[in-house]
Amino acid sequence: MQAQGTNRNKSFTHWILLLLNILALVIGTAAGPLLTRFYFLHGGSRLWFSSWLGTAGWPLLLLPLYLSYRKQPNKENHITRNLFLASCGIGILTGADNYLYVYGFSVLPVSTAAVLIASQLGFNAVFSLLLVRDKFNPFSVNSVVLLSASSVMLAFHASGDRPAGVTNRQYVLGFVLTLGAAALYGFIIPLIQLTYKKTKRQITYTLVMEMQVIMSVVATIFCTVGMLVNRDFQALHREANEFGLGKIDYSIAIVWFAVTWQLFFIGVFGVTYLSSSLLSGVIIAVTLPVTEVMAVILIHEKFSAEKGMALVLALWGFASYFYGEYVPKKQNEAEGPGRAAQAFQSINNV
Under 8 Å CB-to-CB from 331, ≥6 apart: which residues? Predict the structure, then answer.
């Protein structure tokens, strides 16, 4: 009876943590792109500074990390030297990915950038095949084709989508770099999975949080170097004074910029650990239309028929990927007990 009560408490705690991480992921996915575009629309122009803000909210991780330390004080649950070095490498890639994303959002409408980011799922499938030997199935191939088609459709109808003041060269470069950012993040997620797979240490929530802190700190340092080279620190005071909505709103915007993107990273790592990377992809894809609708309502972006078709193709590609990954697993789980019973019956017959 006591064991059953302990299991129930663990299950309840697991679901509470999962729901909190899902909430963080939804908020980060919906609000992060909007606040990034908001910053550039009202006079923000520092690319390295906005890249820095993408991970500068890492101190928010210290409280949950402290609580996990108190719950799991055993040193065997903590990070090893090899995991530390791997986390540093992934942090550098994350910092570079932040810059690619930010450049895209500086010149592309949110509705366009969001559809391009959805192609990350296709890149994730390809790199999962190469790095962690995940098998391709017809649904995975169909997903990659549909997500690629959605990006191509946007590329062929890009001329009428360019914001005022953005040159054709800047727009094309932003388009390419946003796709590059989706590809790089599609590489980072399987790389994290490969890191988990290679380590001999048990993967605990404490270990996941430690890796996330290290990756965020290293990514922030990487972007800090970019800020120093680009002289962003000297320009921030002038940028705040010249911000379209005033200095106070500028300060509020950059604080929430950092908070929402850190919530996104907390949600991605938390949901992946507590459930699966597939569920993370589900939540991001489901939130994608919300982000686009909010961009139309809040910052008055145009939503053309081409964007609508590209969004439909992206969601169709996601649904295909989800079906190909989720349904076979459920079928195997359902068939498992049946197969075991058949084997047991065969032994009895013998």
Answer: none
CA of 100: how far to CAs of 18, 35, 54, 103, in Å? 30, 16, 12, 5
From 109, 26, 41, select the one nearest 249 (Cα to Cα): 41
Mean pLDDT of the 276-290 span: 72
Q: If you average pLDDT over each of 118-122, 149-153, 188-192, 200-204, which comes out highest?
A: 188-192
pLDDT tens-digit readout, 46-77: 999 999 999 999 998 888 888 878 776 666 66
338 burial type by CB count under 10 A (0-12 exposed, 13-18 middle, 19+ buried): exposed
- φ and ψ of 216, to 5 deg: -65, -40
pLDDT digits (tens, 9 = 90+) for 215-265: 999 999 999 999 999 999 999 999 999 998 899 999 999 999 999 999 998
Q: Which amino acid is at 300?
A: H
Closest CA to 93 of 185, 29, 179: 185
Please check whether residue 107 is in contact with residue 35, taking contact to mean a CB–CB distance below 8 angstroms.
no
